[in-house]
């Protein structure tokens, strides 16, 4: 039996991120929620300082933390502060919530590769934040784009797998 791992990231509205990550090889499950803010039990209408993020449960025998981050940097714009598409505010910041020093180091390595690639017109502004409690979002947000296939998303794959930052 595999020992699954979890990764926590934020990069704009959580609906689109979840929808793209759920389809990645090695991803076992996803959940959207709030992380990195000021209050306990945040809600969509009360989550000061929290980012809209996702919890990714993955099989490390089929994908790695760095491979997840590589995709993360290809499916949202990591060069805009507190913004993705039309969504603006700290809830929509690009962030990696690292759980230990190893994850932090791997995130720094991937950010360096992304910056050095020159594929984005500016430098990465993604924050590296220590893991804090992940608060699952309300049920109507979970699997939102599965329930609402024509729903809003600002996420799409900007660089295909053949253009990955990891070589």
Quick take:
GO terms for molecular function: L-methionine:thioredoxin-disulfide S-oxidoreductase activity; peptide-methionine (S)-S-oxide reductase activity. With 167 residues, the protein is of the alpha+beta class. The protein has helices spanning 14-21, 65-75, 101-117, 144-147; strands at residues 5-11, 27-35, 51-58, 83-84, 87-88, 94-98, 127-130, 135-136.
Can you walk through the features of this model?
- The protein has one domain: Peptide methionine sulphoxide reductase MsrA (Peptide Methionine Sulfoxide Reductase, Chain A, 2-Layer Sandwich), CATH 3.30.1060.
- The chain is 24% helix and 23% strand.
- It has four helices and eight strands.
- It has helices at residues 14-21, 65-75, 101-117, 144-147, and strands spanning 5-11, 27-35, 51-58, 83-84, 87-88, 94-98, 127-130, 135-136.
- It has a six-stranded mixed sheet, with helices on one face.
- Helix 2 (65-75) packs across helix 3 (101-117).
- It is globular, with a radius of gyration of 15 Å.
- It holds the Pfam family PMSR.
């Amino acid at each position: 039996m595999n020992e699954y791992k979890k990764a926590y990231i934020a990069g704009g509205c959580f609906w689109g991120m979840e929808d793209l990550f759920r389809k990645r090889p090695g991803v076992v499950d996803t959940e959207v929620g709030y992380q990195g803010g000021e209050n306990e039990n945040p809600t969509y209408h009360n989550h000061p300082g929290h980012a809209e993020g996702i919890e990714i449960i993955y099989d490390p025998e089929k994908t790695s933390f760095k491979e997840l981050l590589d995709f993360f940097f290809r499916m949202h714009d990591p060069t805009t502060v507190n913004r993705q598409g039309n969504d603006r505010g700290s809830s929509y910041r690009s962030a990696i919530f690292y759980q230990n020093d190893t994850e932090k180091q791997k995130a720094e390595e991937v950010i360096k590769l992304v910056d050095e690639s020159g594929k984005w017109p500016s430098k990465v502004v993604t924050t590296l934040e220590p893991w804090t409690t992940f608060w699952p979002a309300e049920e109507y947000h979970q699997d939102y784009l599965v329930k609402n296939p024509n729903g809003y998303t600002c996420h799409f794959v900007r660089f295909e797998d053949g253009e990955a930052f990891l070589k």
